[in-house]
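Hi U.,

Before I forget, here's the chain from the pilot set. I'm dumping it here mostly so it's searchable later in email.
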Amino acid sequence: MTCTAESVFPPRRRAPRGLTGALFTASALLAPSLLAGAAVFNIRDYGASGRRTDDARASIQQASPFDQAQHALDFRRVRDLRLKDVEVLWGWPTLDSWKSALNFEEVKGLEMSGVVCQAAPAPASAPAMSFDRVAGARVRGCRALDNTRVFLRVTGAASKDIRLEGNDLALAQIPCEVDKSVGAGMVSGVEVKTGTP
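Structure:
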């Protein structure tokens, strides 16, 4: 997926160099507050070419970013993040390393609406969305696609105040799976299956 800095960062904030690429990973590696208040809107990820109808096989070459990627969109160490109208559809061929459509680690303050996704078609048992140490998240108006085993998996003892509201998760076998390390009542708004993935 190609994602420009302008689609992620507000006009008054400058993005770090090198943010445009084949895959999108948002991470505050250099400064803890680098990605505070970022917003992502109207993203459509259709694989390597960026066109929904194209086959990605010709675009994927040895040692490309796709060979190392695990998640379609990966957000780490981010504060006050908003995602609206984000859709992730996986392309072919698949790689065994592919996992979740959306991965969030150490995120504080997350607003999601209109997200449509599923886990990668690889043999892994990854969820469509993964929250690890996420605090203060609102997931509204999102939809699970066909062949979704787990829509949302929540892990990490620091995960808390996660609320799901008005989502269409009928196609997910398990709407939300919460690890035993997450405190009771930290995830609300949907039937929660507790256990270790």
